[in-house]
Design brief:
2 domains; single chain; Cyclin A, domain 1; HAD-like_sf; two-stranded antiparallel sheet; Haloacid dehalogenase domain protein hydrolase; alpha/beta; Rossmann fold; HAD-like_hydrolase_sf
Length: 254
């Protein structure tokens, strides 16, 4: 299903110029904002803080191991969970494996430590502002579809808008649609998002980093023009899917 390199899909630029594509829907996390690093930093920092507070000696390899336990919890769940679930579950697994009995301290400490997590935004991905500026200049309408809480999505959108204003000295409207974190970002979610924006999915370019929650369900919903972001450059060989390493590379197709 995957191959190394950029797909030889049909030319997105030509389709935009000829009106075959009229709109763009972006995924948000790890597409326009660097949510992966944001999660990683908070998960590891909170783990270090707990172990130090508890007087537990550790190596950085232990922190990474606990982080990977949290990643596995996410994979097993098959959908996003609150960050506290990953960190608490990872630390408890680590402590149990070492015969520790003080696991009752984990939940209250981590919940307090991470209480500010959803009040801030990850950093914006390199290229996000330039891509949005290019779309605005060309009059191409766009929206963002996020699989996160409404409030946290608003915080990220506002950060993008503020940095856009600082860069280009003009405001930008960014319509967005969210699917609750406890629901799946599936085919119906992409249909609902396109209806919310008033977009025709058959004439919409979908851009996202996840094959499971962005590319495949959007394709099932009727989208035939998709861009998959993969930092490892592992791309689908599906001719409807164009592979790029990061959002900045989308500029080559606009």
């Amino acid at each position: 299903m995957f191959e190394k390199g950029i797909n030889n899909s049909e030319d997105i630029k030509n389709k935009l110029e000829q009106g075959e594509l009229e709109s763009v829907i972006f995924d948000l996390d790890s597409t326009l904002v660097d949510t992966g690093k944001y999660y990683r930093d908070w998960m590891k920092d909170s783990t270090r803080a707990f172990l130090e507070e508890s007087g537990i000696e550790y190596e950085e390899t232990d922190i990474h191991q606990i982080y990977m336990y949290g990643v596995q919890i996410h994979r097993d769940a098959g959908q996003p969970l609150l960050i506290t679930s990953y960190v608490i579950g990872g630390i408890i697994q680590y402590l149990k494996e070492r015969g520790r009995e003080d696991i009752e301290k984990v939940t209250p400490y981590i919940e307090q430590y991470l209480s500010e997590f959803y009040k801030n935004s990850p950093e914006i991905e390199d290229g996000t502002l330039e891509v949005l500026y290019e779309l605005k200049q060309k009059g191409i309408i766009f929206g963002i579809y996020s699989h996160a809480q409404q409030d946290w999505t608003e915080i990220k959108i506002r950060k993008i808008q503020l940095e856009y204003f600082d860069r280009y000295h003009e405001e930008i409207e960014i319509p967005f649609f969210t699917t609750a974190i406890d629901m799946k970002k599936d085919c119906q979610g992409w249909i609902d998002a396109s209806n919310f924006f008033g977009f025709n999915l058959e004439k919409t370019l979908v851009v996202g980093d996840s094959m499971n929650s962005d590319i495949e369900p959007a394709k099932e919903a009727g989208c035939t023009n998709l861009v998959h972001i993969s930092i490892n450059e592992q791309y689908s060989n599906d001719k409807m899917v164009t592979g790029i390493k990061g959002i900045k590379q989308l500029l080559e197709h606009l």
